[in-house]
Amino acid sequence: MPQFIGSKEIAIPDQVLEGLLSQSCDANEIELQLRETIKVENASLEQPDTETKTLIRCLARKAKESNRLDVFHHLREITPAGCTGESVIGKDHIIDAFP
Questions:
Q1: Domain limits at 39?
Q2: Is the pTM of this model over 0.85?
């Protein structure tokens, strides 16, 4: 299902989305699926272009919505500051702070 960032529609690749929704896939596996699906190199996640940043942000949002905080935090570790959007962790949940 497409996600929206602002007015832009973004589709998370099916393979990545399936991994995200599967509790048996860990955060590293989802990262590998993302890299394989969109054919990114290490530098692309370290210095992502606008399109890749948007995809990362969309995946981070979906990870939070799916209660896959392991994936969300992993994305925050492997991408530059600001790519996943801000998060404010409340006692029982994360409050979305995307611009």
A1: 3-97
A2: no
Per the CB < 8 A criterion, the answer to whether 83 and 50 are in contact is no
Please give the full DSSP string across 56-87, using - where no structure is assigned: HHHHHHHHHHTT-HHHHHHHHHHS-TTSS-EE
pLDDT, tens digit, 9 for 90 and up, residues 28-65: 999 988 888 777 665 678 888 888 888 888 899 999 99
Q: Please name which of 18, 16, 19, 58 lies closest in space to residue 39, comparing C-alpha atoms.
A: 16
Using alpha carbons only, what angle is made at residue 89 by residues 13 and 95, rounded to the nearest 5 degrees? 65
Structure tokens at 45: 């996640």
- The number of folded domains in the chain is 1
